[in-house]
Hints:
Low-confidence stretches: none
Number of strands: 5
Shape: globular
Radius of gyration: 16 Å
Mean pLDDT: 92
Structural class: alpha/beta
CATH architecture: 3-Layer(aba) Sandwich
Number of helices: 6
Helix content: 40-55%
CATH superfamily: HUPs
Number of domains: 1
Order of helices and strands: EHEHEHEHEHH
Strand order of the largest sheet: 3-2-1-4-5
Largest sheet: 5 strands, parallel
Amino acid sequence: MPLIVTAVYPGTFDPITLGHEDVVRRATQLFDRVIVAVAAGHHKKALFSLDERIAMARAAVQPYPQVSVESFSGLLRDFVVSRGAKAMVRGLRAVTDFDYEFQLAGMNRTLMPHVETVFLTPSDKFQFISSTFVREIASLGGEVNNFVSPLVLERLMDKVRGAPQE
């Protein structure tokens, strides 16, 4: 019986971007099962509710049957270990991400010695995209259609215009 290797890709995904989607696609080429773990975001003020972020992430990963989306709160270590994951996927966009991610990987290795952190870079056309920039550009009336999927764009525009959410 072959070993099924599970990886967890954690983040707030507020909102999920085309860069995130590209990292998920890349992760599916390396792991049998990928869990997109949407953080409740207790330390960040999110634009979208947890349920909205989960719904957008589920829509984004629909083409990949080996990917599931779950929420988590508390220590990421507990979530990763409870799912039997052998790897944690982290996206790196630029050198500025590396220092933080390197420190985080070191802490996670101490907390989860049997879980490897795997850094994946998005395609060149997505390397500069961040959820923070997308939210800011959208809130200032700029175009973000090249950074998010059509579904996310619609929900983002509704949110910044103050339309009631479902």
